[in-house]
Amino acid sequence: MIDAIMQRLGVPTALYRQGDYSVTSPTDGAEIGRVTLQDADAMEASIGRAQQAFETWRQVPAPRRGELVRLFGEQLRRHKEDLGALVTIECGKIYQEGLGEVQEMIDICDLAVGQSRQLFGLTIASERPGHHMRESWHPLGPIGLITAFNFPVAPWAWNAALALVCGNSLVWKPSEKTPLSALACQALLERAMDEFGDEAPKHLSQVVIGDRAAGERLTDDSRVPLISATGSTRMGREVAPRVAARFGRSILELGGNNAMILAPSADLDMAVRAILFSAVGTAGQRCTTLRRLIVHESIRDEVMTRLKRAYAGISIGDPMQGNLVGPLIDAQAYDQMQSALGTARQLGAQVYGGERQLADRYPDGYYVAPAIVEMEGQSEVVRHETFAPILYVMSYREMDDAVAMNNDVPQGLSSCVFTSDVREAEGFISDMGSDCGIANVNIGPSGAEIGGAFGGEKETGGGRESGSDVWKSYMRRQTNTVNYSRELPLAQGITFD
Ligand code: NAD
Q1: Pairing outcome for strands 226-230 and 142-146
Q2: Which of 36, 288, 363, 419 is least crowded, fewest Cβ atoms below 10 Å from its Cβ?
Q3: 274 with 246, same domain?
Q4: Which residues are catalytic?
């Protein structure tokens, strides 16, 4: 099956069958490919090629660069099912979510095509007669992209589509757990480049499959003005100071610990649907997964009853076969989940679910029953992101306390309130409300749309990707003052003669 998919996606067999590094599917642990891990020297050479490609690409007018991204979007439309299936096989998310990830790529391409005609600056009033002041935006250079296993293609596309229309070249180090999806994206982009013609330089976009050492080499290289890194807070803590030490820029998209506040006036049918999708979808392995449910004490029993009923109906199994929950990525993820549940039990929590599933059928696949954990307070284990389907349920009495609990974690990615009270809704998204990058009303914390800026505060890293004015991150800002008079007046009224 993998060979047929890879062929249709245009990936040469040698790239994914002949290496020394085994790639396995979390579905059953079976090997699905062998790739070659590149070392730091290979990364160094790729950056040199990206620098050359940048010097050519920045000369192409931006709307024309948009045409390349349009063609790439067409390739994605044509191959949505194959790429979605590959994502499912390689990272274990269910096929519907694999398709959804590719749809996000298509959406960002559409956005970037329009943006390619809107890379605009300002005109600013000058204090001096006969002078014009304005602000213009210019391409940055080769952009370094580091991505995580759980979204193996969409975050790359969010960055790549905008970075390309902004006139930059790309060097992508994907997660070593999901290199085949990266090779497929590269193959589709190369097809689009062939269609586009000679104006697109050969090494405009490169994939360097490697581990941490390759990532570190990319991070340290001063020819790469921007590093956009998606992954754990641990990774961000290592990457951020290294990029800062050479005065580079970074976009950091790190861990989340997302909450829902459930008020007494909430529509519980809607809320339970939202909880189910956001807490167990992608087997709890989304950065925006719902991890903390802060429920008003007056409705806690009813909510727990409904949740247990909903969780009992979840189908767990092969992510290609219409189930709602697929496997965890690997044994380590399973161990971390069990360890967090063990700690919660020691703290007196009541744990429902969490057991391993289908171990007889898939001895090397790590399927789990999503867990609900009733906790009294927000202990250390709750404040930590465990990348697995664990939903901590806690209660509150006053809305101010619930908002304080929402904010009382080190991460600041996504959050939401379910309420029919306009004061609570508006308060939650006010200056005194949620401190997260994403704050929703009557919508779960996951599954954001491409038009808004995506990202979070505090240990989530502060980066923003996708829509709004995010394109500016991939360009450098220049202030221009033009004197069209025959005098040379100085600013600030200075006389100097
Ligand atoms: P990870 O941090 O283990 O790895 C992410 C990437 O960083 C990989 O490509 C890895 O090789 C690379 N890397 C690791 N250490 C590095 C270093 N010192 N220098 C350079 N590169 C390095 O993360 P993961 O397990 O693949 O993904 C799960 C994590 O990613 C979760 O914490 C999740 O919340 C987060 N995530 C965040 C977002 C977001 O948008 N905020 C999106 C997806 C995933």
Answers
A1: parallel
A2: 363
A3: no
A4: 253, 287
Indicate if 194 and 74 belong to the same structural domain.
yes
Are both 420 and 286 inside the same structural domain? Answer: yes
The count of structural domains within the chain is: 2
256: which 2 tokens?
């989340």
Helix axes 40-57, 212-220, angle to 10 degrees: 50
Distance 414 CA to ligand 1 centre (A): 17
Kindly state whether residue 456 falls inside one of the protein's structural domains: no
**Whole-angstrom Cα distance, residue 367 to residue 357?**
5
Report the separation in Å between the CA atom of 233 and the middle of ligand 1, taken as the mean of its atom positions. 8
What are the φ/ψ torsions at residue 129 (nearest 5 degrees)?
-65, 145
Written as one letter, the residue type at 17 is: R
- Cβ-Cβ contacts under 8 Å for 110 (sequence gap 6 or more): 73
Ligand 1 atom closest to the Cα of residue 385 is 32
Q: Whose Cα sits closest to atom 12 in ligand 1?
A: 212
In a domain, 246, yes or no: yes
Mean pLDDT, rounded, for 291-311: 98
Cα distances from 77 to residues 106, 116, 161, in angstroms, run 7, 20, 15
Residue 366 lies in a domain: yes
**Prediction pTM value:** 0.97
Alpha helices in 79-140 (DSSP H): 80-91, 95-115
Same domain, 179 and 94: yes
Instruction: Kindly list the protein residues whose Cβ atom lies closer than 6 A to any atom of ligand 1.
Output: 146-151, 155, 173, 175-176, 211-212, 215-216, 219, 230-232, 235, 238-239, 253-256, 287, 385, 387, 413, 460
Assigned domain for 379 exists: yes
Question: For residues 240 and 242, what is the distance between their CA atoms, to the nearest angstrom?
Answer: 6
Do the bridges between strand 371-374 and strand 390-396 make them parallel or antiparallel, or are there none, so unpaired?
parallel
pLDDT tens digits, residue range 399-412?
999 999 999 999 99
Instruction: Please give the single-letter amino acid code of residue 120.
Output: F
CATH of the domain at 414: 3.40.309.10
Same domain, 157 and 275: no
Amino acid at 473: S
User: Are residues 98 and 193 located together in one domain of the fold?
Assistant: yes
HSE-CB for 486 with a 13 A CA cutoff: 0
**190-243 pLDDT per residue, tens:** 999 999 999 999 999 999 999 889 999 999 999 999 999 999 999 999 999 999
Instruction: Kindly state whether residues 163 and 225 are assigned to the same domain.
Output: yes
Residues 174 and 304 in one domain: no
